[in-house]
Design a protein that fits this description.
Largest sheet: 2 strands, parallel
Strand content: 5-15%
Number of domains: 2
Helix content: 40-55%
Number of helices: 11
Structural class: alpha+beta
Distance between the termini: 63 Å
Order of helices and strands: HHHHHEEHHEEHEEHHH
Shape: globular
Amino acid sequence: MSTFIEQLRKKYSFSQDKLAKEIGVSRPIFSLIEKDQKDLTITQARKLAEIFGLSLTDFLERRIPKEPELVIERAKVKKQEKESDMRISVPEENIEKFKEVFLYVLSKIGAKTNVGESVLCKLMYFIDFDFYERYEKQLMGAVYIKNHYGPTPAGFPKIIEEMEKKEEIAHVVKKIYQYDQKKYIPLRKPDLSLISAEEKEHIDWVLARLSDKNSTEMKEYSHRDVPWITAEDQSVIDYEAVFYRTPEYSVRSYDD
């Protein structure tokens, strides 16, 4: 029977050699760790947890948080009730707006070498949350979850899968140093009729500020934002928290 570490390693297609190098041991020693025949140090456990995108607590407790289920509310269909805290209903028009903004972002900065899936998710978060702070209204209205690596749009894999099936985007995997980076390529132009001039100006402004950051820089930057800090792990990030941001993150001038 596979052990927890072995299951994670195979899920993310890592070799024993690679993970052994990451935590500073030989492959035979890592093999013993993987078979639960040798204990990890806290430092080694923390490194593996980071590689697998888990919190140290979840890793030590051998728990993989469940991806929230995204329920798309179709037009003229009654909103489905939540069956659990992991079930998130989102109007279809919000999903369609998200797709067009995603395509627009890809058309503007998707070719940059630093922009992979991780950076894109955080850019979408700042586009949405910065717009809400500036104008007190939704741009895409996407739901974001507090994950170990930072804010992630709920149901992102499902949305991307649907876009790839419709041949709206394609993905490639490239090596960045020792890590794989998933990049997305737009296969059609965004429908700009769904994006207002005010929204487009805002998106361009966010991209000019943040799109040169790499994955690590974006992770650290998002982790210092009040909405992410105040949310519970694996829970929905509250838009209203933008009004309590620190000066480093606030994008609005407030009257005294």
